[in-house]
Amino acid sequence: MTNISGASSGSSTTRRGRVVGVPMVCWCGAEIVGKISKSDPNPYRRYFRCAFAVSNKLMDDNHVFKWVDEALLNEVDRLSSEAKRLEQMVRESEIVFDGAEYAKMVFDKVLMKVEEEVFQKVESVVSESQRYMKKLMIVGIVVCMIVVGLGNFI
């Protein structure tokens, strides 16, 4: 697996195995940071990367690298499978509890929990994107102010 931002592979393979979903920590114990690709094949595409590998500018290593869009799709698939499994458990429990209303109540609670998990994951990625855009706007404003200041000086 290559971890340069030009890679188009979404599966992240490390010494510890394939990373499924949104990675939380690298196998080395370092936290995961969100980055934006500056490569020609994947310009401005967001990805997750091991903070240790980022700080040491490691290339072609075994530290975590995963595209954000593919990580979120993995997460949605995992939660969907979990919802189906729980739905099946609820259906099987209808016989035991002898009541469709109780099963529906349990199913609705489980479904709400799964939806909350998906919402929280998506919301965290969106808030990280917003913070990054604010930083970019500040840099742009500062650069414009410098250009205007130099223009007035010259």
UniProtKB/TrEMBL annotation:
PANTHER family attached to this UniProt entry: ZINC ION-BINDING PROTEIN
Coiled-coil intervals: 69-96
PROSITE patterns: ZF_GRF
Organism for this UniProt entry: Cardamine amara subsp. amara
Keyword Coiled coil on entry: yes
Descriptive protein name: GRF-type domain-containing protein
Segments passing through the bilayer: 136-153
GO MF entries: zinc ion binding
Top-level taxonomy: Eukaryota, Viridiplantae, Streptophyta, Embryophyta, Tracheophyta
Keyword annotations from UniProtKB, A to Z: Coiled coil, Membrane, Metal-binding, Transmembrane, Transmembrane helix, Zinc, Zinc-finger
Domain GRF-type per the UniProt entry, residue ranges: 26-71
